[in-house]
Amino acid sequence: MQSFLNLLIVITVIKLIHASTLIELQSYNISDVSVSGLSSGAYMAVQMHVAHSSVINGAAIFAGGPYYCAESNLLYAEEKCMDVTLGGPEVSKLATITWEYSAFNYIDSPINLSDDNIYLFSGADDSVVDPTVVQALQSYYSVFTDVDNIVADYNVESEHCIPTVSFGEVCNRLSSPYIGNCQFDGAGAGLQTIYNNKLTAPVSTSDYNTSNLFSFDQTPYITSKQSSIGDQGYIYIPTACQSGNIACSLHVSFHGCKQNIETIGNLYASST
């Protein structure tokens, strides 16, 4: 049976001032790649999924909108892609831009999205990213893939957060660490969607082998001095995957605003 989570990397997006002892990543036997994220991390996950669709073959998006939603416009970012004061994302326009960017080889062909499994989540009480933005993302993805490949959850009465079974703030309260105690396993729902419900769920969603969660040095992969990617990330490597003798799935998750290590420690990596 496939393990519940073959390989998970959590990337820290905000730079760190103090770094702990870090491991150096080794070469692993990777069979496939998927992404996920919350809020700003959700938008990053969508950008990665669409731009690199020849490599990434699944996504779980929590409170995020379509590719190129803001169109490099700060006003649009806040009032089309969050609170929809200006009417929300223009799906047809963004889909057209996606095709055009592909034609110029700026991004991979969206044809690659046609067989990807996609999970979408928006809390019914989300006051930060309006649920209609996530619904627009569903419409956007539907341009490129069959609707049967998309699973959407809009009925959990949560605020702006990643929902969990038993960890975090009160589900419908907007507060740090933006991980909600909602009696709902959001991460599990996303991964099961991506992997066609073939994963074996753990006995308890709060239990994992802590010795397999590592901090790693991201600086070798940062080429721009203006990058906001932190020096440190977290990676969970199941014991069976560490030798490289078997192929394992790679899942990359991008945290949201105010979920960096300095603010909430390793909670995003360990508790979602």
TrEMBL record:
Name listed for the protein in its UniProt record: Feruloyl esterase
PANTHER family (UniProt xref): POLYHYDROXYBUTYRATE DEPOLYMERASE, TOL-PAL SYSTEM PROTEIN TOLB
InterPro entries found in the cross-reference section: AB_hydrolase_fold
Keywords, alphabetical: Signal
Source organism per UniProt: Chromulina nebulosa
Signal peptide segment: 1-19
SUPFAM superfamilies per record: alpha/beta-Hydrolases
Domain of life: Eukaryota
Keyword Signal listed: yes
Keyword S-adenosyl-L-methionine on entry: no
